[in-house]
Each structure stands twice: as C-alpha cells, then as structure tokens.
Amino acid sequence: MIQVKMTVNGKEKSGEVEGRTLLASFLRDTLGLTGTHVGCDTGQCGACTVHVDGVAVKSCNMLAAEADGASVDTIEGQAAPDGTLNAIQQAFQDHHGLQCGFCTPGMVMSAAALLKDNPRPSEAEIRFHLSGNICRCTGYHNIVKAIMAASGQDVSAIAAE
Amino acid sequence: MPKDSGIGASDKRREDVRFLTGTGNYTDDINMAGQAYVHFLRSDVAHGRINGIDTAAAEAMPGVVRIFTGADFEAVGGIPCGWQVTDRHGNPMQEPRHPVLAHGKVRHVGDPIAAVVAETLAQARDAAEAIKLDIEDLPAVVDMKAALEDGAPKVHDDLTSNLCYDWGFVEDNKDAVDQAIRSAAHVTTLDLVNNRLIANPMEPRVAIGAFDRASGESTLYTTSQNPHVIRLLMGAFVLGIPEHKLRVVSPDVGGGFGSKIFHYAEEAFCTFAAKAINRPVKWTATRSEAFMSDAHGRDHVTRIELALDGDNNFTAIRTETLANMGAYLSTFAPSVPTYLHGTLMAGCYKTPNIYVNVKAVFTNTVPVDAYRGAGRPEASYQLERVIDKAARELGVDPIALRRQNFITEFPYATPVAVEYDTGDYNATMDTLEKIADFGGFAARRAASEKAGKLRGLGINCYIEACGIAPSSLVGQLGARAGLYESATVRVNATGGLVVMTGSHSHGQGHETTFPQVIAEMIGIDAGMVEIVHGDTSKVPMGLGTYGSRSLAVGGSAMVRATEKIIAKAKKIAAHLMEASDADIELKDGAFSVAGTDKSVAWGDVCLAAYVPHNYPLEELEPGLEETAFYDPSNFTYPAGAYACEVEVDPETGQVTIERFCAADDFGNVVNPMIVDGQVHGGIGQGIGQALLEACAYDEDGQLLSASYMDYAMPRAGDVPFYKVDHSSSTPCTHNPLGVKGCGEAGAIGSPPAVVNAVIDALQSGGSKVTHIDMPLSPSRVWAAMQA
Ligand code: FES
Ligand code: FES
C-alpha cells in the first residue's frame, strides 16, 4: 500500500492506496466524493473529469499515486460554500443542460477547463472540446447552449430551447 | 403565451442542484456497512457446453468470501418473461428457461457462469481469473435466417427450434392484403435492416443486495426504471420472497432508455447472495460488462411492400420481419416486435389493408428488448422509407404523397387493432414546413454544391402509441402484468403536499413537473409539493416509467388522487364556513363560497383536517391523504413531422447533419423546456442510430463492439442545434391532463428523416441508389455511390 496526500477542493486529504488504484476510485471510495462518476472503462466518456493542478484530467485514466502532492478540484468544490452555483452550473440549470445528471459533473469540469483557456468559445469550439465527454440524454443542444451562456454570449437566437 | 407557473411553465428543474453539485445519490454512491463485492465471470464464447468449473484455486485466493455457480441456483426460479405472445396458429411462443447463472450451457458472450464474492472488488476480480473453466465450444447461431434453417445449432436444446414465435397481425387480414397487393396499380418493395443498438445510459447498472436476519427482510438497491416491477418479478418468480419481505429501491438513476426496465440476473444474484452470506453484496457493471449484459435493442430484418392505386392512394401494406430475441427472453422482449410494432404499421395513413408477419428468433447473442421507442421506431422506419421510395418511383413529391394519404378524421380505427383518438397530421406538417424553411432549401443546396458537397432533405411523419397501456387490452395481448399507475397524495397539517408516485424519474424531471400540475390544480406554489419515488417501502404500488407513460398514466393517477383531496377539502371548508359543499370553489389556494366574500385558506383547511376541533367528524374522517389507481382506456398517440438536411461529401461518403427540425403533437404540455429537452435527446439517439451506432457480432458470436472504442456514440460534434416545436397540439381525449407523452418521439422520428435525406442527397448527384442500411457510415455511403 502507498500513502498519498493531495489537496482536494482546497483541503488536505490523505489515504492509503494500492499501486493500481485509480484517482477516480480514490476520490469516490476513499474520500467519499461520489460526484465524480465512472461511466466507462476505456477513458472515453469523460464522466470522471476532474482538474489536477488546474488541468482537466480523466480521473479513471490516472493512478491515485500519480496525483500524490497535486491539487485536485472536483465537482463538489465548484459551488460557493453557501451553496450558490457557479456561473457554469447556473447556466446548466437555466438552460436545461442536464437530464439524468450522470455525465454532468464531467461536463461542468470540462466546460470550466475550456472557459479558462477560451473565455468566449464558438459553438464549433465547444463541440470540439466536448468530444471526450459523452451525454446520452440531452442530444448536446442544451449543454452547448449553456456553455455559450456561461461565457456571456447571447443564446436567445439559438433555436427553441 | 408561456406561463410563469403551473401547467405550461418552463420551471427550472429542482433536481438539477444536487446533480450539479455532485450530491446526487446514484446506486453506486451507496455503500453499506460490511458489504462484500461480487465479480461475475462471464462466458467469452457465444455457445458452449459447461463440462466443469473448478473453483478450488480461486477459493483459496485472498479475500474470497464465497464463489457461486449455476448449481447454487438450481432450486430457485429462472429469470421470468413478462409477456407471452400467441403465434399465428394459436400456440404459445416457445419460452426457454433463463437461469440466474448459466447451467449446462453458455448461450452468449457475457452469459454469467460464476460469481466471486470477496472483501474487495480487486480481490474478486483476481480470484475470478483463477477459476478453471472446461467449456466445450459449440457452433453458434448469429444470423437469424441461418438460425431458422433445418439442422441449425439450437440455442436451447429442449426447444423444437430457434423459432420463438411466428406471429401474424391481423391474421384475418392476410387474404385481403394479398389480394390488394396482387391487384395494385403500383407496388413498392424495400428490404431493410433496423440495426442492433445498445441503449448505453451513461450510468452502468448497479445492484446491492442486503438481508436483515432480525426482520427477515431483503433489500435490493438497483438502477431500475420500475422498482415495484422488479420486486414482483424477482420476489414471486425467482427467489420466492413475499412482497412484504422485499424492499426494492432505485434512487437517482443515470438514464435508462428502456435498458433499465428489465429484471436482470445480477439483481437476483445480489439479493440471493446477501442472504446466503449474511452480508450486503454489491455489484457495479463496468462499461464492457454493460455491452454484453444490458439488453440490446432493435435488430429487425424486414421486407415491406406498399401497394398504391392509380391515384396514388395507399391500398395495402404487407411486411415480413425477422426479430432477434437473443439467447433468452428478456422481460418484455416478445412484445416489442409484435404489439409495439405491428399495431403502429398504419402510421399516419389511411391504408385499408395491413398485414404484419414477425418471426422472433433465438440466437447466441445478448437478449434484445425495448430500447427508446421499442417497436415503434422499427415501424416508422419501414413505412417512411418505403413511402419515400414509392414517391421517387412514381415521380411525385414525397410530402404531397404523404398529405394525400393522411388520416384526417378522428377517432380512427386502424386495420391493426388500435384506435387513434385524436391528431392533426396536416397541422404538424404545416408547422414543419414553416420552421424548416423548405422554401430556402434550393438555395442551400446550390451553396452546398458550389462547395463540392451534395445536399439532401428528408422527411418523416411518425406516430407512436404511448401512455402504456390499458390493462384489459394488454392482458388480451399477452402481458402478464397490469399497466395502470398509482399515486398517493399526502397533505400535511401545514398545507404542504407529498406525492408518492409509481412513476420513476431517471432524467425526466418528475420532481419538477409533477408539482407543477398540483400547483395548478390547487392554486399554490409548486414549492409546496414534494415528489417521492423509487422506493417500494415508501410508494404503495407502481409500474414505473417506460413507453412515455409517466405523465399520461402516472400523472393521471396523481390528478385523480388530488381530485379526491380537493373534494374532501371542500367538505371541510364547507363545514368551516357553514355552507354547502356544492357551493365551495377552490381558486388560488383559497376556498370560497360562491356568490359571497367568505373564504378560507388552503392551509387552514389542511390544519383543520389534522386538528379536527371544528370538524364534521360524524361524516368525515380526519386527515387528508388519498390514493388513486389510474388505468388508461386507450394508448395516447403522439405524432409529428420531422425534417433533416444533410450534406454528403462525395469524396469520402461523410454525412453531416446540417439542420434538424421537429414539429410534434404531444397534446398538452406541462413544462415546455423539459419537453424540448426530451425531443433533443431522442433526436440525438436517432441520429446515432442513423449514422453511427452498430452493435456488431462476428459469425462466431463474438461481440465486436464491446466498448466505446468500437461502438460509436454520438458526440457533441456529430449533431447540430435542433429546432423543435410542439405548438400544433391536439390534446389527448381520454386522460385528465390531455397529455400524450414525449420521451420517445425524437428517437422514432429521426432515423427515417436522416436516411431519406442522405438518399435525396445522393440522387441529387445523379446516383441511382435507393437504400443504404443504417448506420450510414462513410464507407457504406461511399460504397453505395460507387455502385
Ligand atoms: S470513466 Fe473516465 S472516461 Fe469514462
Ligand atoms: S444528462 Fe444523462 S448522460 Fe448527460
């Protein structure tokens, strides 16, 4: 067993893991942060997306031991401490960017990474950026729209909501 | 005018807050004290005889608690099938036994052979690798035609053949249909495949079994669309647990699309094993396991013939379909190609003679059952493809040909045993013509051509039967369950309400929409209403959510229960105001006496019901809680017109969806935002079926598409923004809300529109191609263009 330590959503966390333990499983099973979801076993769906040292990472594709000493942000740390949703989360609610909610944490984390690098992405840039995040419920319409809205763009002209 | 509260308002979803903050409660998020983990060792061959399972080395591995095999389940029942189809000759379908763990033979890749329960999941997986299997390979049947040939290997040795049933619908129509086709002025024939799909909700299935020795109660947490149905099927038919000793909970569920309706072996296993080892047992499917154990969808091979008279009126439709059942009968599998498909073959058209023949076939593949639309996409696809082909053969406009044959008078009894209560297909087509800007198509095509691309426009007019279903009707058709829904409405002393509904939300937003209905009925804020669902210990009874039935059936039950509440509350109000209850009116959350200024607030009446100091106790019990069961008198018939515009790159065969428009008639709409979202999602899946998705087996029965590396899921870049409109609405005539259901429409309406558009594009470039089977991958399109 290996001892790992990381800063998760701003708090120091530590735990014992096997060499093969994935970061996704450390977050979910050891730390109880079950907002990070696991939707596949081939690194394709993006439900497990978190930020490691500010970079979007599929946590099913990284060993917990690799994240030793890193700063990790998950969906649980996105809203304000009083529960107020951040701009992306709020836009997802306002524009019905989620249905079953299973892909949602990964979508929000992936969108956050995009907007950090590209504060006003075009529709095509958003769609391209989301190629590693699968949603089976929404047909993507309202996810793309929500991300455009979260970046301050006028979405009123986009076909019926 | 959009409303800002109640029925017709786009209330933001209250469930979103927990999903957006990572605080949802999905089944895999649940962990129980002392739980063990199970890993299933699954067959890697499609067909084989189990000559031996040696678990000795595996049992000695670290952390192993117990290893189960088929022998442990000899005394328990098999996984039951909930629907019995009667064949053309009046005989019951062939119904094989479906053991919890394979016994004697394995019959598909993924069939569970042994289950290792261990302290950790990693230990369970490690130990499974140490199990020594002696499996003798048998020749597999994968192709349906080959499976029906004389001498084909049999999936089930104790059945007479691989034919589950040979079904004719309506058998008495057959001669008239044959005659009409012989004497037709024109007959268009089309052979097509409705490609096998995998539902792929993003949350894989999970089951946790637990047993309490003190009470003797078993609990199953499971990712189900219908926990009460699982309680009944598993309790009564598999494990022999009476319903009062079995609790089934399905908390937040990450999508279903049909694949989470069915009772699965893993649920029975975890419940059984928890009792056997007296510890909770947890199973979480990997995605690869989901591909080989979730029921698959579609997989029909069909020949359809459409006969027309000299004036282009449809005179007859005849279809012959092979429908894949897979290796075992999943819960509702037999109903999908029959009663959910044959009954819809009239579509939106007044064709007097229709005959549907379906042969359901066992093969060495994963069981096939309902997937979003279930039978209705298959019906719509055949019909709308053959109509397009006929229009081309006759040189007439495909929209005009459809309009000419539309049913225009309602109610309309089809020759395939259902009665459409209401609809206006010309109106939805009018809406479509407007939103899709058909007038601008020629210019858009010219622009595409200038850029070296081909552009096509494809239309589809679908109809579906939703709000499943009248129990008396489905009982005659072979259902082994009723299909009503129940709701209990509990009013608290301080005026808030809790609704316990048998409907289950796995993305549909019931926690938001159901309160909107009650808020409208009583005139209170929707925030005063809470919805409870997904737990058999809290909700008295339920049949669950599938077939776009939640609002039409579950919502109707809730309305009936709320009407009983209001009737009783009026009596209490009448007593408080010393008036006759016939004179009491309820508006904006207050009861008043007609023609006076006397009034009493909703909250005061609720308080009086629970603090009955001034109360008509001789006539009325205290308290305010009512239950209703609602059994619909008919299906509902949502319908719509869809248009797709594609561009095809003639160099590569690559298809891109340029525009997609949907005009639907869902009857009344409670939350337009959510309805639009349901249509978007359905269209996304339909585009997936048309262009991308294919569940593929090789001839030995190996599943070639068993991960997202091989099974092409639609991604954000594969689809456009959609334009959807549900303003042309003819409310359902037989349920109290006038609603029809919207969950499946998109998945039914979109594949034919996409394929029609691609054929249109190719023909515009001079190609003679009349059909390409889905998915329309670049290689298939390119190959068709070369022919
Ligand atoms: S779970 Fe990480 S990509 Fe699917
Ligand atoms: S909201 Fe269900 S998978 Fe995206």
In words, what does this structure look like?
The complex is a heterodimer of chains A (161) and B (787). With 161 residues, chain A is an alpha+beta fold. Chain A folds into two domains: 2-76, Beta-grasp domain (Ubiquitin-like (UB roll)); 87-150, DNA polymerase, domain 1, CATH 1.10.150. Chain A is 29% helix and 16% strand. Chain A is built from five helices and five strands, in the order E-E-H-E-E-E-H-H-H-H. Chain A has helices spanning 23-30, 87-94, 104-117, 123-129, 141-150, and strands at residues 2-8, 11-17, 49-52, 55-58, 71-73. In chain A, a hairpin with a 2-residue loop joins strand 1 and strand 2 (11-17). Chain A is elongated, with a radius of gyration of 16 Å. Chain B is an alpha+beta fold. Chain B folds into four domains: 16-22 and 484-630, Aldehyde oxidase/xanthine dehydrogenase, molybdopterin binding domain (Aldehyde Oxidoreductase, domain 4, 2-Layer Sandwich), CATH 3.30.365; 31-138 and 202-255 and 260-293, Aldehyde oxidase/xanthine dehydrogenase, a/b hammerhead (Aldehyde Oxidoreductase, domain 3); 139-197 and 297-405, 2-Layer Sandwich (Aldehyde Oxidoreductase, domain 4), CATH 3.30.365; 419-464 and 635-787, Aldehyde oxidase/xanthine dehydrogenase, molybdopterin binding domain (Aldehyde Oxidoreductase, domain 4, 2-Layer Sandwich). Chain B is built from 19 helices and 30 strands. A seven-stranded mixed β-sheet of chain B has the order 3-5-1-13-10-11-12, sandwiched between helices. A five-stranded mixed β-sheet of chain B has the order 7-17-16-15-8, with helices on both faces. Chain B has a four-stranded mixed β-sheet with strand order 20-28-29-30, with helices on both faces. In chain B, helix 15 packs across helix 16. The mean pLDDT of chain B is 97. Bound molecules: FE2/S2 (inorganic) cluster (2 copies). Residues 38-40, 43-48, 58, 60 of chain A line the site of one FE2/S2 (inorganic) cluster.
